[in-house]
Amino acid sequence: MKKRLFWKLFALIVLGSISLMMVAHWLIVHTEQKMSFISPLHQQTLRDYAREAEQYYQQGDMATLTQFLARVSDEEQTWVAVVESDLTPIAGTTLLPSYKERFTLGRDVSWKIHLYFKENPVMDVTFEDGNTHFLILLPQHMRPGTYWPATSVLMQIFLPILLMSLISIVIYRHVMQPLRQLQHAAKQVAEGDFSIRLKPRLGNRSDEIATLAETFDSMAEHIGRLIQNQRHLTADLSHEMRTILTRIELALGQTENNKEHIQALDRIRTEVQQMRRMVEDTLTLAWLDGESPQLQTDEMDLTELIDSVVEDARFEFPTREIALTIPDYAPVSHCSDRVLGHAIENVLRNALYHTPEGGTVSVQLRQAETEYLILITDQGPGVAEKHLEDIFKPFFRLKRQNQSTYKGFGIGLSLAKRQVEALGGRIYASNIASQGLQITVTLPLPVVYVKQN
What we know:
It comes from Methylophaga frappieri (strain ATCC BAA-2434 / DSM 25690 / JAM7). The protein is α+β, with helices and mostly antiparallel strands. It is built from eleven helices and ten strands.
């Protein structure tokens, strides 16, 4: 059957609506019935009045009876009377004994009172002789159904709301439970678990949601195969390129003794080294993007790490100055010295590449209220405002007149961004007023430092 979910919901709503009307009708009728009778206490009061009047009547004490009836009338603010009835058939007719036994001049105190009539009924308590009746217009305070109008509104409005809420909850759970499982499964897929399967968790469902689960399982399996193939391809590519680069380096080492080709060989070696660095950075970038590894495992001194990176950069770029401003101690937790060191190295190397010979690159470490700030400022030409975010994209390179002197491939800053963000930090670029580009790296302070601040 097509549209199984539609027919399920349709049947549930129809049956629920019918049940709602039946339950509401039964409750209203039942409640009205229960509220239509005089309370037992008031019934007994009326019977007591009648018994006392009957006692005076049987004793023939009409004066006391008259006083009693007047007192009851005053106390109850109503009409009261004692009446004799003499049913005399005429024209040769007779009365049925059962009719004569049931005959009253008013309503019995045990009868139901109509809640929709404005006038109060006359109540009748028959004396033992069967011909004398104690009649009283039902006092207003004894009339049943005082709360019936409010009860009627409550049952006609809030009872349907309550029952429809229950039906809505059933529908919601029937639909949302598999959707929550789908959400959980999608989260697991996003975290890299492609073995998750949703259809077995739905039991014997065979509606549209079950079809969606089957489609999701097929998608997860397909994506898992693609990711696995990509990993194998990346590993194979890495192995093959590293092997080729190693052979080229070995061949260069064997031919460097030939003085005639020394300049060309130096250029080849430089390009090979750049290619090796590009391959390693690209693989690291792909690893960070695809695997989402847990890197926040180390505790270290940020000052020592920056000082070590700067010393290596000074050796690699002897024609540039590096002005270092760092505190004596800057502890960080939930970090990775290898990953963070690589990120700072890439940013610093980029600054040194774009600073002319004899120029100065500034490296500062500051402590803010909740984070560390690493400021690396070069003396290069800067970057147009529209490209300040683009420089962190893989393989993005600005065209410059001295492009031939820059050895990068546009991987360093994008890799640094992924590395810093994987450690819970941020990285962004801004132009400084004089000349050059400033890249800011932020890292969260340890929790103890934040509390102290």
